[in-house]
What we know:
Blueprint: H1 2-29, H2 54-68, H3 73-99, H4 107-127, E1 135-136, E2 140-141, H5 148-167, H6 173-194, H7 208-232, H8 241-258, H9 264-268, H10 270-289, H11 300-306, H12 311-340
Antiparallel strand pairs: 1-2
Helix pairs in contact: 1-2, 1-7, 2-3, 2-7, 2-8, 3-4, 3-7, 3-8, 4-5, 5-8, 5-10, 6-7, 6-8, 6-12
Amino acid sequence: MYNVMGAAMIAGFICIAFTPLLIRILRKMGVGQIIREDGPVAHSVKKGTPTMGGILIVLGTAAGYFIMSRRTLHGMLVVATMIACGILGFIDDYIQIRKKRSLGLKPSYKFLGQIIIALVFAYVAVERCNVPPKFSFIGEFGFSLGWFFFIWVFIMISSSSNAVNLTDGLDGLATGSMILVMVAYLLMSFTMFRHPTSLHPKFYEFSGGAALDMAIISGAVLGACVGFLWWNAAPARIFMGDTGSLALGGVMAGIAIMTRTQFLLVILGGLFVIEALSVIIQVGVFKLTGGKRVFRMAPIHHHFELGGWSEFTVMVRLWIICGFCVLIGFVLFYVDFVSRVPIPGK
């Protein structure tokens, strides 16, 4: 557990200590947030706030992991996926800033980048890390997906990345929500590490150094987000940008695949799912009805803002929803875990 705590402290220190320096550098370079023209009027004051703060989230997580971990292939693959998604997000941020528009990298190019990341992840996970090419909830189930597993990994990584990106529309919302999800994955991964199949045949097959590495990565992401939230809390002095949101979505999906909790992620990351669904529903209804809308504005946090809620109120209430989702997901895991514990005398 000391490795997990150490990774969290290292990542948190890097983000707290070096974010002010990054803010000054970004201000000198003129790297400021571009606000969408059709967004809430109240957000206009945020124009020019330094973005790309996700650079430190990625660097802090990587530093915490490589300093404190056993460096298993499982762990390095997940961290590499986070870095790759972060680079894709960085390119997106750079284009937005350079061309001074709220839309950055063309969707087709972002799509291609996510395909490449997913293909590499899926191949290494299956061929080198022995991850079963199956669906999973708390442990894998069903038949082998074969080549469809590559598509499934792409769906997970791209949907998680885009969902976190959509959630990152209020000061601290995505950062705080990710902290809650990572707390759950830290506890779940460490539980898998401490209770391998070797102790009892009903315990989790994913264990050993690989499971500990997932706990360390979760701790590092948690620490990095806590450190970043110090500066990202309302009123934010810096935004994570696509650099951070795509990276966080990628690492979340990677941990879920490694820990065999793919569908459980839908519950744990329930807030991210809600945010993404609100956009899908809004766009779908708008196109099908020729202009009608379900929400005042999507993603759904803007709907509440336009309904008269303050930004801080929306953020806290959505954090509460996220907390309930994480609690439900972790309880499901815990109930499953307790069912595996041998009864004395049997």
